[in-house]
Fold 6-phosphogluconolactonase.
Amino acid sequence: MILIHPDREALSSAAAELFVREARQAIAERGSFISLLSGGETPRRTYELLACSRLRDQVPWERVHLFWGDERCVPRDDPRSNYRMVREALLDYLPIPPSHIHPITCEGGADAGAAWYEAELRAFSHGGIPRFDLVFLGIGEDGHIASLFPGSRLLGETERLVAVSTRENEAIQRVTVTVPVINQAALIVFLVSGEEKAPIVREALAGMREMPARLIHPVDGKLFWLLDEAAVRLAQE
Ligand code: 6PG
């Protein structure tokens, strides 16, 4: 499903409302809600709106577990840290138990971090692939999702849940979930805003050339694209 909003604020508001709706439904049905959060800048406003009392107070945060889809191997107070972005926008305002916050860490190195996070995910799924109730994803101008970059051998990973990723011309390493984790979700939501994303959105929606988004097919769930008008400008031509 493709949902188009006038601008980033409307997109972010819709995404925050969606999070609350999904959380309340999952908790009512199963007693818990686990979500995989996206990094980058696009979701920041969504998280900020979710932290506002009008929405925050509708969620029983003691029933929620938050994970990250990827992380850069930098200190947690580094401006490039996805954990820092979510902490600043959301976590600092939530009555959520610290044990329910599951950031990726690269302590001991990226490989150790990936192995640890894989164990963390498997602990949530009795050894299998965890079924996240909600996965937020962004998309880079080159088409990457999480830290799965176009042409990466990680795109074909079918066994590991978490892997070390590197980006061309980027000195740091990254830790990312793999496609099977994303596709196991009950609901996958792409959040895409801005005219700079219009070319990649057009290619993604048209299923053009080999790119990570083409691999995102929920096994037994739903896939939403929440876009603003700037991001779909070319796709509508
Ligand atoms: C990351 C993100 C990444 C992000 C895209 C879009 O760590 O880089 O997880 O996958 O979603 O790069 O980023 P923006 O929202 O900043 O455009």
Notes: The mean pLDDT is 96. The two ends are 19 Å apart (CA to CA). The first strand starts at residue 2 and ends at 5. The chain is about 30% helix and 20% strand.
